[in-house]
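DNA 3'-5' helicase
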Amino acid sequence: MNFLIADTFTASFNRLAGPDQKAVKASVFDLQMDPAGNGLQLHRVDNSKDPHFWSARVNRDIRLIVHRTGDSLLVAYVGHHDDAYGWAARRRIEAHPRTGAIQIVEVRERVEEVAPQTTFDFTVPPPPVGGDASGPPLFTALDDNALLSIGVPMDWLADVRVASEEGFFALAAHLPAEAAEALLEYAATGRLAVPAPVPADPFAHPDALRRIRPIADQEELAQALAFPWEKWGVFLHPSQRALVERSFSGPARVAGSAGTGKTIVAIHRAVRLARENPKARVLLASFSEPLAAALAKKLLVLAPETGGVVPRIVTASFHGIAEQMFQLEHGVRPRIAKDSVLRERLAAAAEAQNLKGFTERFLLSEWSNVIDAWGLESLDDYATVQRMGRKNRLGPNQRAHLWPVFQAVRTTLAAERYTTWAEVFGGLAAALARRPSKHFDHVLVDEAQDLGPAELRFFAALAPATADGLFLSGDVGQRIFQHPFSWAGLGVDVRGRSHTLKVCYRTSQQIRRAADRLLPTVLRDTDGLEDERRGIVSVFDGPAPDVMAFGSTAAEAEAVRGTVDGWLSEGIEPREIGLFVRTSALVPRARAAVAGLAGEEQMTTAPMSLAKGLEFRAVVVMACDEGTLPLDERVADAADEAELDDIYETERRLLYVACTRAREHLLLTGVTPTSEYLADFAHA
Ligand SMILES: Nc1ncnc2c1ncn2[C@@H]1O[C@H](COP(=O)(O)OP(=O)(O)OP(=O)(O)O)[C@@H](O)[C@H]1O
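Structure:
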């Protein structure tokens, strides 16, 4: 007997109160042990169009809906008595006649009963569902054949044909996800997804697996029920699953814009690799300590069993793992020169060498991004380095003037036993590359777009040069800390092994679409890999983001406070609210706006650079003022037009990262004159 659970079950289970959940768990475990359902008073749901629905009694009020066919038992839904029966009455579970994937189809006639015919009422979606008197139909060019090929159920063909842009999301909620996504992608790009081949077993279809998962044993069932709100723990998009399961002969990369589940893929992949080889040691690294801690927490969702694979999966920040490896190599921790030390040594060296015409900020940036990042050791190296991303054309004379300053700083730092992160990464890379035996069997790196050259070398040296040795996930559109450089040039060639995720799970369609306007539709990295961002779709919709400009910071604070207060009264928890500003110095402006609101201390207020990897139900991006975004000091330091372009681009990306942390609500505010980016953001 195949025992399966559907995402509709975990979602409904998640909505129940604690004691009911406990009772449901016990019943589901019983059912797994004894699929005949003895003791659960199984009986057929007779007012359903589908004769295979049965209900099981959990307690006086709660009913479990299961679907029995041949030798399969699918746990489909759970709810209070009437709700559970009503759900089953409005559903059929069947293989789609064209794609062959098992679908949970909402029966069309019943939906009409739920949303009765209205003549002209915008509060209830006017039937046909998704149609809208004010907008032209979106899919008239697609005939039944085309609609069936992407998995639109027969019941819904007529509705899709008349759906307008405004009404589409009302309709999408009734469609199987693969059909809704394919239609959204078509609306954005004019391209229709190519259907997957029809498998012999309808439950094995990739689109069926995203909503229905076979459960092999009690352990898997326990895992599936332990964290029902973490849907990703059980149900993956077919494109995510493919990247989790696939074996790559060399370094591989998953790309995709914000919220497409790159981190989720990396975590699943780490667990898959650790499970497959009981001896494998796996490293799962991310940009910062908080992000590494978040990875560790998510790992427990996939592998909650004690013992098991988790102890063999090391989660660490980039710096954290480098520090550990450094200690192993040298027996001491590295003494890292902070920026303040570097700034001071650079200023001293510049004065000693009588260097004129370069700002302190430029010297630090040139040191960090060129001299130190690439480990340059001579004027010859400096004269020929490509200065990728620092496109300014420093002539040979300027470089010759600058070099003695940098050389003096190197000497001073060495004498003081200081080192830098780039030196630590570079030194370790050189040492580890020579080792035949590696510390880890698989290295997975999240937020890889912000790896510097020395860091990339380090991770490449840490990973074995075998299949599935190195896996990187990241989004070029979110690169905010590093200048671009060629990965292939450093031996990490992911061409042919790079895949882009296109379904956004985090951010509503409205917010994502607005944020996407901040970036070009196609991003190309230095190795020529293209990231096409037009066909991205979000799986849910919500209110459009708001953009507001004010005459003073006081007026801005008042409006932000009003909006946040509104969110709180809607039931959004304070910890689900984030306020971001361009710099740390502006954080007090955000704090002042929420001062005195209930739970203000639980709200995140931070500079945008710390927003990466996080997510909130509601986000405010404040202080988007002219001079702040892009940041005047950075702009003033640009050596030429090309470098200015680069600064404008990274500043845009910072805003993109901050905005895409929002799931449902987003507000952008500034004091007039506001940041020029707000206009890009607001224009449709
Ligand atoms: N298959 C899935 N089912 C349900 N939710 C998912 C799925 N995949 C991802 N998510 C959710 O989508 C959100 C974004 O996922 P994740 O953080 O992995 O995206 P990301 O691509 O790494 O984002 P970013 O680039 O912005 O850091 C998370 O809340 C995650 O739980």
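The longest helix spans residues 396-415.
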